[in-house]
Amino acid sequence: MKLLLVEDDRKTGAYLCKGLVEAGFTVDLASRGDDGLHLASGGDYDLVVLDVMLPGRDGWSIVAELRKAGRDTPILFLTAMDAVSDRVRGLDLGADDYLVKPFAFSEFLARVRSVIRRGSARQSQVYRIADLEVDTVRLAASRSGRKLELTPKEFGLLALLSRRAGDVLSRTLIAEQVWDMNFDSDSNVVDVHIRRLRAKVDDPFPTKLIHTVRGAGYVLEVRG
Description:
- With 224 residues, the chain is an alpha/beta fold.
- It has helices at 10-22, 33-42, 59-68, 84-93, 105-119, 152-163, 171-179, 189-201, and strands spanning 2-6, 26-30, 47-50, 75-79, 97-100, 126-129, 132-135, 140-143, 146-147, 210-213, 217-220.
- Residues 124-222 form the OmpR/PhoB-type domain.
């Protein structure tokens, strides 16, 4: 799952990014409010974690602008502003939760998962393609009722292919969405992970779902 973290404190941002990545998330980090709004407006995020006091644009106006534009991405405020009036304001603007600094990372992670689960009412959370089932909230996948043991990156790759089932996805798009990196034509990271994913998702089963489209990329679909 992909998160956007808008946090101007470098130490806090690095700490949260490290913990979230270790928990299996892909994270984009913005240190300015205007950059955060730009990313949140155009990116496909499962959650936005947002400070209030930011350079360029404050968190209040970011939430207001996103909701005004019809963006229903779940939002978690993470801020040192602890007055009841601040919490009420954040929730009234359209945020889904409000956590005050300082905080325990375990609570923060629980809040992140809770907000994503609640937000699943607005977003599809389970994708089914033939006998494959991918649950993007529980971070679980199975085929023919058999649980698939996937690494966080393998699950992120499978979730992306499942959300876009039937669409041919380029290596560049996959690298950007799953690894948050610009694709280097000399790098085979996408192809290597596709091979590893096929070994778990396709090889043990008669019907193959992950297909190569020569010169274009990969697609998850039922053929024949």
